[in-house]
Structure formats: structure tokens, C-alpha cells
Design a protein that fits this description.
single chain, 4 helices, disordered N terminus, 42 strands, mainly beta
Length: 633
């Protein structure tokens, strides 16, 4: 049986309406990848080189080149003075090479510069070059007569959110008097392909030993939105306005997943149906930025635990790539079914070269790309990057539900759910919804079979490096081979902001219209026909024989923690050492599971519980378990 993920969005409404307006995307107001990185590595410091006095070792010389492929998250401090921009590979669409610098309204920590106010505008990110000596090159003096040009590519929006005509991207030069002079600007507009810009430097005031240039975006106070993507910055002498070509070929995009439907899955499920799960080919985008056609050669290696387990030769993938063009190369898949250990991680390395030639030094870093194929305890349709949030935009106070369908190749036990919650402009600390798991939902020939429904108060954020909040199921759910569903229901108007991967998990054709999305507004399921819903919600079920969250199931002394007041009404206090607790779950006498809504590390919000007797189960960092009864009056 093929292990298969499809998305089913069930909107249960009391009245009809425009279903496309009721569910959709919501803009992000922070960058969780940056904030989680800084939380995981608090010792990180931006290189202080830019703070030193100008000197022989500080000043760069021509040529200057940057395509943002040597670094990730932050720009290279040997070339740049600040780290406001976000260096990434998932927001742009078909860049000149696979890395870009993205401008938004977020600081280096991934948080808004100021309080979000959509009607206000101001400066956002700044990207300033290190000091560059524009008085000499290779020992020879240079000046306005030496045809010095700065060129770059930019793209508005990409896979990011909207951009307005009052937003703009600006370029400024530092004069010999120390003033920044505006040189170029472009107003905001809808999506476009990358556009190349050529800027001649002709004024004497810019030919000095500490020349700098900088880009700034003028933007609405909207957070992780109004994106501009910058790439392929090149400054040199001896150029002209027609010098729009570069003697460069490059890898343009991340390679596709080795799997047909998943970005990641458990290895034992993969082994149950290798031919059904393994993609027949891998695809990767390449570009030719030259003014002449080239014979582009592409190859890759697969490695496991440091040893090569297969790959291809350059001679096996050779084809003409015309000038100023890009294409997608198809490479055969290697057998990866004989691996062992946990987790199984396949290192993937891709290379491009021109037949009989080598890229000049400034361009060589974009000739190689590394990625991994991970087989762990979870199923993932996404690649871990959220380009936007996802949920209901207009329920008119009615009830709505979202379910993501998975199909198992063999029986397994569901242990937990990972959900990626994005921060958006809405305050969601008190919203109420249910985390739901179904064995089946009511489609033709089937009925709803709800395995558990867990009330939750507030969106759950985390500082974990991968951005997922993990819900542990205190009572694991045994599942037969076949499909099951994970999602949520809500009865009021708010957008939950579950992460939405618009790259489609780097699956081949993953960014096409997702026809596995269905809607039900009381008149049966409808297949998704909305081009606005291209991608997948970021929800990851975790399966396996053992509990991935604790190391053992030893008992904890009941007297370690005390509950009061008991009976309780709206809050339940815990007396004792709660710092070692890793999880807590509430059970009603009917067997229904309720997630614990912590107010702080000593107090639980129980206002959502109905009158009755409940069991509060604790699990500490040693895997010990204790349970105590309490009453809701």
C-alpha cells in the first residue's frame, strides 16, 4: 500500500458562503528561523570586524561579488557591515543562483523593528557593504574614466506576501564627505521575475578609499512581509551598460525530495513500499548567466555515514543551456533501501560545471549544493520553511475544521503531533480550538471516526530550533494500515496561523495546484480549485513503538506535587518542583484527553473544563509518571 499524504480541509458551516474567502493564508509578522536560531545559540555574535577603524586589512578591493550562497541566515561579514537581511533559499522564485538576501520589516532576531501598524511606513532592513577602495585596483589607480559599474538583480514578493506601490527598494552610495547619496529606487509592485539593474559610478565624490554602497527597503510596518529579494551583486571596473552577462553558470534551486509525496517519513514505512515511495528521478534547477550557450554538466553524490552509496557522473547528464536561461535537470534515483540505524540521514551533494571550462573564482561557490534526506519518526509534507500562515479567515462565528490525511504502509502507533504555529498580527493567547485525530472522515463510503479531540486554549509557540510545537499523546493511538487524519476544529473567527509551505516540500511539481485539498460546506466534499492554496499546512504526526518524548516509564511519587484549590473553578495551582516536568495531560472520566493550558509553571487554566472529576498526569524529564485527581466545581 502506498503511504500517501493528501490534504483535506473540512469547513463545517451552518450556512453557505464563499468557501474561498473563508479559508486561506495570513501574513507572518516574525521570522521564526531567526528567532529560534538565536534562542538555540545565545552565544552567537555578529562579526565585529565592521566596527574597527579603516585600515589596510579592512578595506576591500575590486572586484566585489556576492550571490549569498556561501552563508545562510545572515550575510557574510567579510563583505557586509550589518545583518538585518535574511539570507535564504526558500522565498525567491527562480533566482540567478540559489541564495538571496530578503528585505522585510524584521530585525536580526526575527522580530519587528517597531509595533506593527499597517498604515505606517518607514525604513526596514539595511544591507551595507564593507569599505571598498575605489582609488586603485591591482596597484593601478582608477577613477570615473575606468567604467566602474555596480549591477544586481532584485525581485519583489517572490513566495513572500503582498507588496504595495508605496513600498520601495533604495540604493545609496557613500561619498568622500561621509554623506549617503540616493542613487536608485524602485516602487513596490506585484510579483515579477528577477530584474537586473546596471548602475554606472561616474562622480568623483565616490572614488575614495572607504567607498560603500547600501540597500534599504522602505516598507509598511507589517513584519515578515513586503519582501524584496536581492541577488548577484557585482562591482568592478572595465564594464559597460551592455555588460549584463556574467561568465557564470550556477545551481538555481534546492533539489527535489527523493520521495514522491513526502519531504520526510519514517524509514520503516519507506521500506514497506520502496517502489511506491521512492521518486523515479530527482530534479534540480540550473542557470546560465553567460551571453553564450554552454554545455552544462550536472552530477550528484549520495552519502550515508560518510560513505558514498551512489551517484552519477558528469558525462551522464550533459546538455546545451542557452545564454541567459534556466532549466530543470532530471537525474536518476539511486537505491537507498539497504541502510540501517536511526535516524537515517542521506547526505546529498550536487555539482554543475561547463564542459571543458571552469567557472572564474568569484562564481565557483554557486556550483555546488548540499542537502539532506531525513528518515525519522515523523511524516512531513513540508520542507520546514513557512512562507505564510494558514487557517480560517472568515467563519462568521460558525464552526470550521481542518484535517490532513496520511496513509500508513503498515500498522503503527501514533505518539504525538508536531505543528508549526506562525506569529501573525492577531493576538491568539486566549483562542480555543481542538486538536483532532480521526481514523476516518465522512467521504463516500466512509463515516467520521474521531479517535481523540483535545481542547486547547491559545496558540502554542516554541523556541525549538525547528519551530515545531509537539503535542504528546498520553494515551497512544494504535492505527491500522491505511489512512488517518490530523487537524483541528474551531468555533469562532480567528486564523490559527499554522505554517504553510508554499514550496510544497520541495516535491517535484510540489508547487502546482494541490488537488488533494477538499472542502465540505455541508454539501459534500469539493476538490480544491483555488490557485491561492498552493502548498501544504505544516503538521507532522509522530509514530513508533516507543515514546519519543521520554526515556522511560518509571513511577513518580504522588506526594511530589500537590493540587489546589481542589475542587477548582477556573485555575488549578501546583505546589512542588515543576521545573523537571516535560509534559502534563488531563483525562476526564469518559476517557477524553485534554491538553494542559499553562498560565505559568505553577498554574493551569482549567476554565474550559466542564464540571466533573479529572485525572492530571505528569511526566518529568526522567520519564517518571504521576497522576492526581481533581474536581471542577
Amino acid at each position: 500500500m502506498i503511504l500517501r499524504l493528501s490534504i483535506i480541509l473540512s469547513i463545517i458551516l451552518l450556512f453557505g458562503g464563499n468557501i474561498w474567502a473563508q479559508i486561506g493564508e495570513i501574513p507572518l509578522n516574525e521570522n521564526k528561523r531567526l528567532s529560534h536560531y538565536r534562542a538555540a545559540y545565545p552565544e552567537y555574535k555578529w562579526n565585529t570586524r565592521a566596527l574597527e577603524k579603516y585600515g589596510q586589512d579592512d578595506t576591500l578591493e575590486l572586484p566585489f561579488f556576492e550571490d549569498f550562497t556561501s552563508e545562510d541566515i545572515y550575510p557574510d561579514s567579510s563583505k557586509w557591515r550589518d545583518n538585518d537581511v535574511y539570507v535564504n533559499r526558500h522565498f525567491p522564485i527562480k533566482p540567478p543562483s540559489y541564495g538571496v538576501a530578503t528585505f522585510d520589516f524584521l530585525n536580526e532576531f526575527g522580530s519587528p523593528y517597531k509595533t506593527l501598524q499597517k498604515d505606517l511606513t518607514g525604513g526596514g532592513d539595511t544591507l551595507s557593504s564593507q569599505a571598498i577602495d575605489l582609488t586603485s585596483k591591482g596597484g593601478a589607480s582608477i577613477g570615473p574614466q575606468d567604467s566602474v559599474y555596480l549591477s544586481f538583480y532584485y525581485q519583489p514578493r517572490g513566495l513572500g506576501d503582498f507588496i504595495k506601490s508605496t513600498d520601495s527598494l533604495l540604493l545609496e552610495f557613500l561619498s568622500d564627505s561621509g554623506s549617503w547619496e540616493k542613487i536608485w529606487a524602485v516602487p513596490g509592485k506585484g510579483f515579477s521575475s528577477f530584474v537586473q539593474v546596471m548602475i554606472p559610478i561616474t562622480e568623483n565624490q565616490f572614488f575614495h578609499k572607504a567607498f560603500q554602497f547600501r540597500f534599504v527597503n522602505w516598507t509598511h510596518y507589517w513584519g515578515n512581509n513586503n519582501h524584496w529579494h536581492l541577488d548577484f551583486i557585482y562591482l568592478n571596473s572595465g564594464r559597460s551598460m551592455n555588460d549584463i552577462y556574467s561568465d557564470d553558470y550556477s545551481i538555481q534551486s534546492s533539489p527535489t525530495s527523493l520521495l514522491k509525496r513526502y519531504a520526510a517519513m519514517p524509514y520503516e514505512h519507506f521500506l514497506e513500499d520502496v517502489s511506491g515511495e521512492l521518486e523515479d528521478s530527482v530534479y534540480i534547477g540550473i542557470t546560465n548567466n553567460n551571453d553564450q550557450s554552454i554545455t552544462a554538466l550536472v552530477r550528484y553524490d549520495h552519502e550515508f555515514n560518510g560513505s558514498n552509496i551512489g551517484g552519477t557522473l558528469f558525462s551522464e547528464n550533459s546538455a546545451t543551456l542557452v545564454a541567459r536561461s534556466n532549466s530543470v535537470r532530471k537525474l536518476p534515483i539511486q537505491d537507498i533501501s539497504g541502510l540501517s540505524g536511526f535516524p537515517v540521514v542521506v547526505d546529498r551533494k550536487f555539482f554543475i560545471k561547463e564542459n571543458g571550462a571552469t567557472n572564474p573564482t568569484p562564481y565557483q561557490e554557486n556550483d555546488e549544493f548540499h542537502s539532506q534526506q531525513i528518515f525519522d519518526r515523523y511524516f512531513a509534507y513540508d520542507d520546514g520553511s513557512a512562507e505564510t500562515g494558514f487557517g480560517f479567515n472568515d467563519l462568521n462565528g460558525k464552526e470550521g475544521a481542518v484535517a490532513v490525511r496520511f496513509e500508513l504502509n503498515k500498522p503503527d502507533t501514533l505518539r504525538g503531533i508536531g505543528m508549526y504555529f506562525t506569529h501573525n498580527i492577531n493576538v491568539l493567547g486566549d483562542v480555543r480550538y481542538n486538536l483532532d485525530i480521526w481514523r476516518s472522515i465522512a467521504r463516500p463510503g466512509r463515516e467520521d471516526d474521531l479517535a481523540t479531540s483535545i481542547p486547547i486554549k491559545g496558540v502554542k509557540y516554541t523556541t525549538d530550533i525547528n519551530g515545531y510545537y509537539y503535542f504528546l499523546l498520553s494515551e497512544p493511538i494504535a492505527l491500522s494500515a491505511g489512512d488517518f487524519y490530523v487537524g483541528w476544529t474551531q468555533g469562532s473567527d480567528f486564523n490559527l496561523g499554522v505554517g504553510f509551505d508554499k514550496n510544497g516540500g520541495n516535491l517535484y511539481q510540489g508547487v502546482a495546484l494541490n488537488k488533494d485539498i477538499f472542502f465540505n460546506v455541508g454539501e459534500g466534499w469539493q476538490e480544491n480549485t483555488s490557485s491561492d492554496l498552493v502548498g501544504v499546512p505544516m503538521i507532522r504526526p509522530i509514530v513508533g513503538k516507543s515514546n519519543p518524548f521520554v526515556s522511560s516509564t518509571k513511577s513518580m511519587k504522588q506526594s511530589i506535587l500537590t493540587l489546589y484549590p481542589n475542587p477548582a473553578y477556573d485555575v488549578l495551582n501546583i505546589e512542588g518542583n515543576t521545573q523537571r516536568l516535560t509534559n502534563a495531560v488531563i483525562h476526564g472520566l469518559d476517557g477524553r484527553e485534554h491538553l494542559v493550558n499553562w498560565i505559568n509553571d505553577k498554574t493551569i487554566d482549567v476554565s474550559a473544563l466542564k464540571s466533573g472529576i479529572y485525572l492530571l498526569k505528569f511526566i518529568d524529564s526522567d520519564g517518571r509518571i504521576a497522576a492526581q485527581k481533581f474536581v471542577i466545581d
